[in-house]
Amino acid sequence: MAGRQVSSSSDFRSLAVIVIVAAMLTAAFAYTGGWLSPRRLTPTRIVDSLSPAGGPALGFRRNHAIGICFTGTFESNGSGASLSKAELFAPGVYPVTGRFNLGTSDRSTQDSMARVRGLSLRVLLPDGREWRAAMIDVPFFAVSTPDAFYALQRALADKIHPHAMDDFASAHPEFRRFGQWASNAPWTASYAEDRYNSLNSFTFTEADGTQHVVRWSFAPTVVPQLLSAQQIQKRGPAFLNADITERVTHAPQRWAMLVTVADRGDSTADPSKPWPANRRTVFVGTLVAKEIQPEANGACRDINFDPTVLPPGMGVSDDPFPAARSAAYAISYNRRTAEENAYPRNSVPVGAVQP
Ligand code: HEM
After folding, report:
1. Cβ-proximal residues to 50 (8 Å cutoff; 6+ apart), any chain
2. What's the 6 CA to ligand 1 centre distance in angstroms?
3. How far apart are CA 250 and CA 343, in angstroms?
């Protein structure tokens, strides 16, 4: 009798432990998934918030959904070795797969309506490492934090509160500067004429361990033809892809990679705050686009241009965006590559040029 009592109370304790552990695991999953805190920012919520009113374009990137692939090289001139031990900066020529793109989640957006253009790169290094980057042609980011980015998407989609955007702008004064840029900055006539900026800051480490916080840009090597909003509308709905295809077919197109080093006191965690123009800037190499490929069959289609894929010698900084972006890009990548029936593909062989 006494033996059975001991055994049933220890059975009860074991069962209680199992129930408690199961409850803790469920709570942990629920917390991670954001089910316990509907207002907390999660990568899933941030990607959902990017969806246009009619729903996402299945099979396509959940942001920057319009683009065109290219292949080429990065020609490192060796000067970057003064800032980072990354193999990228040893003198040499490294293969690149890239993508020119428009900052929109809506596949029906015309070129003249997409105020933000992007450049994405994957550079393969001889030791098997990679560098991936996704940059835009805006001189500063629209908002200071990933939470503010999410709040912006919510305000843009809010059709119930007529003052949602005004309220957002009042709470995020940095957004007004972006609005002024979007309204007044001239447009260029080509992806080849744009300057693409990392905006986020990263940490470069020299061979002796010295560290620098940097941002980088890819500056055009052709003189931009500046257009007004009225002039750009006359160019047609999708002139950018046709233009870059024609230019690259005619001759390789080039951009200079410039690395800018932060001074003490510069805001490294906030991409909405540009650094003063007199900061040390090093020309480290040249991106050369040599062949355009339509996205449906192009080499860039299946790449996640995750900005945290960095070779030794390059790392993230105190800027919270790259980690938030990495998590969101993974969700977008997983969704679009799983949407098999909608996934873009066509019968044009890779390498063939399609307008
Ligand atoms: C928290 C802020 C951000 C979020 C949530 C976000 C979200 C996304 C998502 C979901 C994609 C599609 C990724 C894929 O399917 O492969 C994307 C693409 C892209 N984003 Fe962001 N983004 C953010 C900030 C930025 C910033 C700061 C920049 C530039 C400095 C940027 C530039 C780009 C570019 C160029 C692409 C196209 C990448 C490609 O060609 O695959 N994004 N973004």
Report:
1. 56, 62, 63, 105, 153
2. 60
3. 30
User: What is d(CA 98, CA 83) in angstroms, rounded to the nearest whole number?
Assistant: 24
Q: How far apart are the CA of 149 and the centre of ligand 1, in A?
A: 11
> Which 8-state DSSP code applies to residue 186?
P
Count CB-CB contacts under 10 A for residue 15: 10
* pLDDT tens, the chain, 355 aa long: 444 555 567 777 777 777 777 766 665 555 555 555 556 789 999 999 999 999 999 999 999 999 999 999 999 999 999 999 999 999 999 999 999 999 999 999 999 999 999 999 999 999 999 999 999 999 999 999 999 999 999 999 999 999 999 999 999 999 999 999 999 999 999 999 999 999 999 999 999 999 999 999 999 999 999 999 999 999 999 999 999 999 999 999 999 999 999 999 999 999 999 999 999 999 999 999 999 999 999 999 999 999 999 999 999 999 999 999 999 999 999 999 999 888 888 755 444 444 4
For 138, phi and psi rounded to 5 degrees? -90, 140
Does residue 304's CB lie within 6 angstroms of at least one atom of ligand 1?
yes
Pairing relation of β-strands 226-227 and 202-205?
unpaired
The values of phi and psi at residue 320, to 5°, are: -80, -10
Mutate to test the pocket of ligand 1, among 329, 332, 336, 339 (most ligand atoms within 8 A of CB): 329
Distances (CA, A) of 184 to 24, 116, 179, 181, 228: 53, 13, 9, 5, 9
Alpha-carbon 256 to chain mean position: 20
Residue labelled with tokens 């890819």? 218
H and E: helices and strands count for the chain: 8, 12
Report whether residue 257 contacts ligand 1, using a CB cutoff of 6 Å. no
Atom in ligand 1 nearest the alpha carbon of residue 329: 13
